[in-house]
Structures are given as C-alpha cells and as structure tokens.
Write a structure and sequence with these properties.
It contains 28 helices and 19 strands. The protein is an alpha+beta fold and 749 residues long. It starts with 11 loop residues before the first helix and ends in an 11-residue tail after the last strand. A hairpin with a 2-residue loop joins strand 5 (559-563) and strand 6 (566-569).
C-alpha cells in the first residue's frame, strides 16, 4: 500500500516530493545558516533556555501579555496531535524507521529557526492604545526588510494556511477522534469542540495562554499514562530499538527509490512531512511568542527553540518506539495501526489517549485561530479580524459536516490542501529568516551581555535542579530533623561540629552548648544580655539582625535592585495592596543571614504593628549564586511581611524564607505558622488591638538561615555611612536616622 504522497492523484504534482523536497531543503539551508550565524545557540544556551522556561528569570514589570511558559505550551500543544504524532507516523511510512535518526539530526540544526522568528516577532511587534499587541512575521518582514508587499503576501498566504492547515485539518482530526474513539454521533462532537474553542478564544490571547498552561501539561501527562498503559506490554527493549534506528538510517537498502536521487527524495519527503506537520517555519509560533512579557526579545526566542527539541527528540522517539515495537514500519502497517487502538476504544487507557489528543487538538485550533486573527488585522484592520473569527468557526464546522457526509476522503483532501498551502506560506518566511539572521544575532548578543545571563554550565544545571526539586518538602523534612532531640552523647558532638564548621561565637550564646537539646534550639539561640547594645538615639534606626548587607539604596518608582542587572517590583515583594503605595520611591536594605549568624529578628524601631501579609511562595536558597542568577528571587520565595508604623513613617519588615528554613515565627502573633503542608496567601490587619513593640525588641526568628529586607517610606530616612555593600553588621547597630515625625501613636489601622 502506497502513501498518498506516492500514489497517483491530481495532487501528486503539487504535494509529492515536488513540493515537500524544496521545502525541506530550504528549511535545512536556513537552519544550517542560522546555526552558524548565531554560533550554535541550541547547544550553548540549552540550559539557559530551560531556566527561562521554568520562570526563574521572569521579569513581571516587562511589557507583554503571556509569560514564557504559556507561549511555549501554546506552541507545543498545538503541534503535538497533527505534528509529532501524525508527522512521525507519515515520515516512518515513507522513509522507514531509520528516518527517526535523521529527525534528530535535522531537529538539532533547525532549532534556531524558531529562535530567530520569535525574537524578531517581539522586537518588531506593535502595541495598540488598548494594550493589545500585534505581532507575527508580517511585522518584521515589513519593518526590517521594508517589503510591505511581501508582508501582505505572507499574511494572505497565512490566512489560507490557517483556514486549511491550522483549522480544517486539525478539526477533522478531532472530529475523527470524537466519532471513532469517543463514540460521538453526527455533529455532536464537532459542535462541542467548537463551543469549547469559542469559550477559549473569546478571552483573547491571555485566555489562550492560561488554557495552554493547563491543557498542554495535562495532555502530555495523559499521553504518557496512556502510552505505557496501552502499549507497555508490547514494547520491545528500548536500546535495541535505538540501535536499529541508527543502523537503518545508514542502510541504503532500507530507502526506497534506489540511487542517490532516490535516497535524497525519500529522506527529503519523509523529513519534510514531519517538520511541516510540526509547523516548522509556517509562522504560527512566532505570532504567539510575539506577545510574551519579556525584557529582552531573545529570551522568548531561546524558549521557542525548545519546542523543536521536544518534538524532534522526545515525541518523535516515543511515537517511533511504539510503531517499531508493533511492527508498523511501513505504509500499510502504519495506516492500519489506528484500527488496533480503536479495537480497545472502550478501555480506560484508550479513552485517556483520546482525551490527550483532544487537549492537543483544541490548543492547536486556538493557536491557529489567534494567528489568523493577527494576519487578518494586519491586512484589513479590526473589522476584517471580526469577520475572520466568524469565518474560521464557520469553515471548520462546515468541514466536519461534509466529513460526516462523505467520509475519510474529505480528511485526505483537506490534509493535502493544507500541506500545500503551508509550504507556500513558509517560503517567504524562510527567506526572511535567512536575511534577518544578523538582526536576531544582535538581539541575542544584547541579551547575553546585558542581562547577567553569562552563566557557567554548572550554574545552569544547579539552578535547574533547584527548580525541579520539591524545595518546600525538603525544607519541611530538614526542619523536622533539626528539632529532633538526640541522646546527649550524639547531640553535643553534633552541635560542636556545627559551631566549628560555621565559626559561631559561642561566648555570646545565652546557654552553654551542652544545654541545647536540638540543632533548632541552638540555631535559634538567644544572646547574653550584654552581647548587643541598642543605639538609644531617638531617631536612630537599627539593624534588625546579625547579617551581611547585600543590597541597599533608593527605590526607583517601584523597583528594587536584587543584584547587578537584576531587579524586582516592590508590589511583588509586599503582596499587600493596602500598603504598597506607601513605599513607592522609598529606600530599602537587604540583610543576608548566614548559618554563622544569630537568627532572631528584632524591631528596627519602636512603633505599632499594623498587620502582616503572608505569601507561601517557593523556597529557593538565598545564597550569592541564587541571588545573582534567579530573577526576582525574593518575591518568588515564601515571605512574611510585618507592617510597622513608627512616628516617622511606615517600615515593612520582610522576612524571606529559603531552602532548609523550617519555619518563620513571630513574637506578636502565635497563630502565624509558615511552611505548612497546606498554605494560602493571607493578609491580616490588627483593627481591634494596638500591638506596640520597642526598638530592638525581638520580633521573630528563622529556624535556619535566610534574608530580611527593610523597606522605608519615601523621604523618611537617611541611611548611615556604615551601610555598605558586603558589610557585616550586628543587630542594634545604627543603619539610618529618621528625619521628622509625621504621626502620633497609637493609630487606628
């Protein structure tokens, strides 16, 4: 049985190797050129790309509508059903199982295509007065190449691509799954899918992004569960499969056609259909990426290229593994393979598999819908964009109706037309990417040199593991073990070893070391009464902790500097809408407590405690490596903020949790408990009671080390000369002087 690419039909001349082969060669040429032009970014910045994807380097004050992960999931979610799954099957049907190896090779070299297109989409995007962003290849073609006619031609071709390749083709795939796999009859399945799609797209790109961040991971999880449940018993050994893939990739006998040109034709057509199926260089991913909230255009470019990595190295390998295990390595066996799955359609694994495909398919339609809307707006404005929305929904529902009347042939014809139009639309985009490689390279260099992103590989791996590890669980476990009361013969040597390792001054401790019953008791030890002197000057503000000053200065509007090249928002840090505005243009000081330091926190000044805000957050470490590399680290971490009203203005005392900090406790409210199993954000204002605290009085404590940040109101304090970067300071030492009294205490909160 021949594939429809090889069979004789009216479409052979326009869809066979005559169109797929040129597409493949042009795509490969563009990928190779950009790989060299950009200096192999897919290898040099792979871990950096993963770090950006995890959200560690998000900058919430940046302009845009989606975060990096939402755009990524919208991209891969829409290319999994008709892309990785179907594309891999068609590639193997045409070129044999050895084609998987060439998918890996080519995927590596074409990863920069998405990097460049997404980078340029952000660099040349437009923002409307309403705040909406317009982006896509047509904008960078027009602005950078100054070729309005080419941009319009691309947009027109893209609209037809959206309707056929991005609309009818995936919608009919979902109709087939709903009818054959989930037993929907007539138009009930297509109409239900259309209603879900309508609900998603009427919310705009923000809802598309939020939906993608849920449906894509859910679909991937369901796919993996169904994959092993449905096929697990029939899977062969994995490494022999890989060996066969590699050996057949270099076996000329395995390639049909004979001769050099026959081999090239087989390879180019099979790889062409895979990469076209995964929407490589057709413009959709750059349209979605163009609305990402980012401070550098190249950041989303780096994230976007991970989609090609995921599709080519992971999904293609998994799909090929199943086909190989069940002997479906030729056209006839592959086209019969869905029948095997449908024979078990009522089993739970099959239903889970079909549900995962529905998740991917709905995302595909939503992503393409947005792409078509952008192109329609570019050519004819908002009115035509509104018309296009109706047109898109009408065309896909009509195609499902025709499919129900005439059967599978409708799907095949829609598929052929869609692939043909997609190839035509890809040509101007690929040419533009080659011509604009220099511009994208400048953006990449700008990001790497200016953003503090020149990390060594081990740092990237370290931070990636920090993201993946269950930090809160580990901290709870560590906190539990730190409270264990071991026998004295074990505890005393342990405490002495801890004190020696961190060079702790035992002469300042309130008790002798053998009197502490646990590591936590020793860590949260009190000091001898005479160990610290609290400056008694009436307007003197004192350090709340024994610590090192890691940053300080003026708040620029609402921005605080975390480290060189890295800052974050006061609003993100405080969480409280009630008091946020008080600290705009104020001052701040960040204190880092190492394991060596005394870990109780004291009030920097006398006043009234107005309330607190608790944000569960994560528990990243707050050491130099993390602070210098994780953007917005402190707002990401667990925080307990005490709002202190003094006669000179408000002070926010921000206690930041960190890895291995079991708990943060405060003296003024024993109901506050951090790092519980179930945690929610909470704000509390003390309305019926006035809680007063003296300067230097204990306010709370860390059970293991962390960070305290003091934030002062605008024009209320002058920082002392001894406040210097990297300076070790003891609690009670003057860090500033208040200027003038502005309120009388106590006050009503």
């Amino acid at each position: 049985m021949e594939t429809f690419f090889q069979g004789d039909s009216n479409f052979t001349l326009i869809l066979g190797s005559d169109i797929l082969s040129p597409y493949f060669y042009l795509m490969l040429l563009a990928g190779l050129y950009l790989t060299l032009r950009l200096g192999f970014p897919q290898i040099r910045y792979l871990f950096l790309s993963l770090k950006i994807l995890t959200g560690n380097m998000d900058y919430k004050s940046s302009k845009g509508q989606l975060v990096h992960s939402q755009a990524f999931f919208a991209g891969i979610g829409s290319s999994l059903l008709t892309g990785s799954v179907l594309g891999t099957a068609l590639a193997v049907a045409y070129g044999g199982i050895g084609v998987i190896f060439w998918i890996w090779v080519v995927s590596l070299f074409v990863m920069p295509l998405r990097l460049v297109s997404s980078t340029l989409a952000i660099k040349f995007r437009n923002q409307l007065p309403s705040g909406r962003y317009l982006s896509g290849p047509m904008y960078f073609i027009e602005k950078s190449l100054r070729a309005k006619w080419l941009a319009v031609a691309f947009s027109l071709g893209s609209i037809f691509t959206v309707l056929s390749f991005g609309g009818v083709f995936p919608f009919l795939s979902l109709t087939y799954i709903a009818k054959e796999g989930l037993n929907f009859r007539g138009m009930s399945g297509p109409i239900a899918i259309a209603v879900i799609l309508l609900f998603i797209v009427v919310g705009g790109i923000r809802r598309v992004g939020k939906t993608a961040s849920v449906l894509a991971p859910l679909g991937i999880i369901l796919f993996i569960i169904a994959y092993f449940s449905l096929f697990g018993e029939g899977l062969v050994a994995f490494f022999p499969y890989l060996q066969d893939v590699v050996s057949q990739a270099f076996s000329i006998k395995a390639l049909e056609g004979g001769g050099v040109f026959g081999i090239l034709r087989t390879v180019s057509v099979s790889l062409g259909v895979f990469f076209l199926s995964t929407e490589t260089a057709v413009g959709k991913s750059s349209g979605v990426a163009g609305v990402v909230r980012t401070d550098y255009a190249a950041k989303q470019g780096l994230v976007s290229m991970l989609a090609t990595f995921f599709e080519g190295f992971i999904m293609a390998t998994l799909v090929g593994f199943v086909l190989y295990s069940f002997g479906a390595v030729n056209a006839e066996a592959i086209f019969d393979f869905p029948t095997r799955i449908l024979e078990n359609r009522e089993s739970i694994p099959a239903l889970v598999l079909f549900t995962s495909f529905l998740c991917f398919g709905i995302l595909s339609l939503a992503g393409w819908f947005y792409t078509g809307e952008q192109n329609a707006f570019y050519i004819f404005g908002e009115k035509f964009a509104n018309f296009f929305r109706i047109l898109f929904l009408g065309v896909i529902v009509l195609s499902a109706f025709i499919y129900n009347l005439y059967g599978t042939n409708v799907f095949l014809y829609a598929m052929k037309i869609g692939y043909t139009v997609a190839v035509v639309a890809s040509i101007p985009l690929l040419v533009s990417l080659i011509l604009l490689g220099k511009s994208a390279n400048l953006e990449l260099k700008k990001y790497i040199s200016e953003s503090g992103a020149r990390y060594e590989i081990f740092k990237d791996i370290y931070l990636l593991f920090l993201t993946l590890l269950p930090k809160n669980l580990i901290s709870k476990i560590f906190g539990y073990f730190s409270t264990l009361r071991l026998p004295r013969f074990m505890m005393i040597p342990l405490l002495k070893a801890f004190a020696k390792a961190y060079k702790i001054n035992l002469n300042e401790a309130e008790l002798e070391i053998q009197e502490y019953a646990s590591l936590n008791q020793f860590f949260t030890r009190a000091l001898r009464a005479e160990a610290r002197i609290i400056d008694s000057a009436s307007n003197a503000v004192v350090s709340p902790t024994d610590s090192k000053i890691t940053s300080f200065g003026n708040i620029n509007q609402s921005t605080i500097i975390q480290a060189k090249g890295i800052d974050y928002s006061v609003k993100e840090l405080l969480g409280s809408e009630k008091y946020y505005s008080s600290f705009i243009n104020g001052k701040y000081i960040t204190f880092y407590l190492s394991p060596q330091d005394y870990h109780r926190i004291h009030s920097p000044f006398g006043g009234q405690i107005l309330g607190y805000y608790y944000e569960p957050g994560k528990l990243f470490p707050v050491n130099d490596l993390a602070v210098l590399n994780i953007r917005g680290l402190f707002p990401k971490n667990e925080r307990l903020i005490t709002f202190l009203q003094t006669e000179y203005g408000k002070v926010a005392v921000i206690k930041v949790g960190a890895s291995n900090v079991g708990k943060i406790r405060v003296t003024y409210d024993d109901k506050i408990v951090t790092n519980n199993w179930i945690r929610f954000s909470k704000q509390h204002i003390y309305k019926d009671v006035s809680i007063m605290i003296d300067k230097g009085s204990e306010m709370g404590r860390f059970e293991m080390g962390s960070t305290v940040i003091l934030v002062f109101e605008n024009d209320t304090i002058d920082l002392a000369p001894n406040v210097r970067l990297g300076e070790k300071i003891q609690y009670g030492t003057v860090i500033g002087q208040f200027k003038k009294k502005i309120v009388q205490l106590p006050i009503k909160a």
